[in-house]
Amino acid sequence: MGPFPRASVLYRLGIKLISYDRPGYGLSDRRRGRTVADAAADVEAIADALRIDSFAVIGRSGGAPHALACAGLLPERTTRAAALVPLAPREAEGLDWFNGMTPSNVSEYKAAESGHAAMTELLSPAVERIRADPTRLVPAFDEDLPENDRHVMADFGIRSMLADNFAEALRNSAAGWIDDALAFSTPWGFEPADISVPTFLWHGDEDVFSPVDHCRWLGEQIPGARVVIQEGAAHFGALRVMPDVLSWLSAA
User: Fold this and answer.
1) Which of 66, 64, 33, 16 has the alpha carbon at shortest distance from 178?
2) Rg of the chain's alpha carbons, rounded to an integer?
3) 105: which of 12, 63, 98, 229 is 20 to 30 A away, CA to CA?
4) What's the pLDDT tens digit per position in 159-205?
């Protein structure tokens, strides 16, 4: 989730941007037991409905693995793929998955390892408070937030847009949030090494939400992937590089 690029940027690049709510978020029906790979079928259905033959995909943070699913499972339709501050698969060989991750995220994914009931128990007490005040999920000045992210979050416009997105995502329940965490903690349903379309990976080296080693691991697995690790940047630095990444996607 994150702010949409400015309309002027999309117009200049000649991009028609289409986004959708993953199951359980916003007005999308929940799909219990969904995997990361299931996103490819959703995107294909949307493209079919809109009569779009081919497309580029981009995902940030939790959306990044789902964008990679399209690259891996829809190679005949996906022209290029970009994943910003991505997570790697939970079973990634040789990766210390939790190293460098903020304690709140560690607790969330540890609960996900125990299953749906544990995740629901962890998140449910906070959901109503967050829905009443979505700014609780905007980490403007958290002590654990890297300095670069604090600088990004000092922008009132960005904080407001993130709060609006969080409110929409949780308008009915935390189902999407819960199911995302479960999907990230189980096999994705495809192998990053099988991705054959041009892929761009971006990460800030101070990210504490999805640590930079996740991106490095993916870069080693995806053949020919372009990997950019930005020194001094963190998780929300991805919002600032979005126009450049969109430009790369539109060059296909």
Assistant:
1) 33
2) 17
3) 229
4) 888 888 888 888 888 899 999 999 999 999 999 999 999 999 999 99
| Whole-number pLDDT of residue 217 | 98
Q: Which amino acid type is present at position 71?
A: A
- 3-state class (DSSP) for residue 44: helix
Where does 7-250 sit in CATH, by number? 3.40.50.1820
What is the per-residue pLDDT across 86-142, written as a single tens digit (0 to 9) for each? 999 999 999 999 999 999 899 999 999 999 899 988 887 777 777 777 666 666 556
Name the residue type at position 165.
N
Distance in angstroms (rounded) separating the CA atoms of residues 36 and 86: 13
Residue 4 CA, distance from chain mean position: 14
Evaluate whether 2 touches 238 at the Cβ level (below 8 Å). yes
Helices in 74-115 by DSSP H: which ranges? 103-114
How many CB atoms are located within 10 Å of the residue 229 CB?
15
The C-alpha atoms of residue 195 and residue 205 are separated, in whole angstroms, by 24
